[in-house]
Amino acid sequence: MRKKVIAGNWKMNKIATEANEFVDEVAAKVPEDKQVEAIVCAPFPFLAAIVDKTKNTNLKVAAQTMHYEESGAFTGEVSPTMLEDLGVSHVVLGHSERREYYNETDETVNKKTHAAFNHHLVPIVCVGETLEQREANETMDHVENQVTKALKGLSNQQVADTIIAYEPIWAIGTGKTATSDEANEVCAHIRQVIGKITSPETAEKVVIQYGGSVKPANIEELLAQSDIDGALVGGASLKSDSFLQLVEAGT
Ligand code: PEP
């Protein structure tokens, strides 16, 4: 059985005292349960302190993006080497906001996915369609293309260890959630695509999250679907009690 992975994406929110308070309230309460994993995706300035605070707890720590190069003249960027050295365990790649505002492409996502594995970071690869693409019936082709390009050149084991987050862009931060059936249909398609490019056994191991206005009120129905193995959550992950409710739903 695949584990459930609940990841809270804080985006560009909180200051250090708020980040530390959140982790103080949450870290010790994340259950030691092999079937559920809780991750906080924090802004770069807070990562070192959060990694330190979460040692000996079950709360994992992710960065929200990174460069694919190990070092060099890339002013303002953060490398996979730095994240590995800090003790970060996961990294979000190709979030639609990075694709829209920071020129993230399927090609850079692929380079970053390889870089993540070279540095013992688990990539959380985001894919998803715009409202126009959904209305034009292009959702399945679009996510197939994104997933295929993101995973290009990885070994079957690396693919099995990758987390895919299916996030329809029209549902992110809008309060509009895909219905659980709509979300499951796309997650099942993603698993099929992964099965084609690797093997059905590999595809069965891949954790596929849904993201887009997930909250305590709708997470249980989403997690009850056959191909939804967790959630990438923005707004509802900012408050410690609501994040803990989301994690609880995965247990
Ligand atoms: C996200 O940040 O990836 C996200 C899905 O945000 P929200 O839950 O606020 O829609």
UniProtKB/TrEMBL annotation:
GO terms for biological process: gluconeogenesis; glyceraldehyde-3-phosphate biosynthetic process; glycerol catabolic process; glycolytic process. Its EC number is 5.3.1.1. It catalyses: D-glyceraldehyde 3-phosphate = dihydroxyacetone phosphate. Gene3D superfamilies: Aldolase class I. One of its GO terms (cellular component) is cytosol. Pathway: Carbohydrate biosynthesis; gluconeogenesis; Carbohydrate degradation; glycolysis; D-glyceraldehyde 3-phosphate from glycerone phosphate: step 1/1. The active site is at H95, E167. It is an enzyme of class 5 (isomerase). Substrate binds at N9, W10, K11, G173, S213, G234, G235. CDD domains: TIM. SUPFAM superfamilies: Triosephosphate isomerase (TIM) (SSF51351). It is found in: Cytoplasm. PROSITE patterns: TIM_1, TIM_2. The keyword Isomerase applies. Its main location: cytoplasm. Keywords: Cytoplasm, Gluconeogenesis, Glycolysis, Isomerase, Phosphoprotein. Belongs to the triosephosphate isomerase family. Homodimer. This is Triosephosphate isomerase. It comes from Virgibacillus massiliensis. The lineage of its organism: Bacteria, Bacillati, Bacillota, Bacilli, Bacillales.
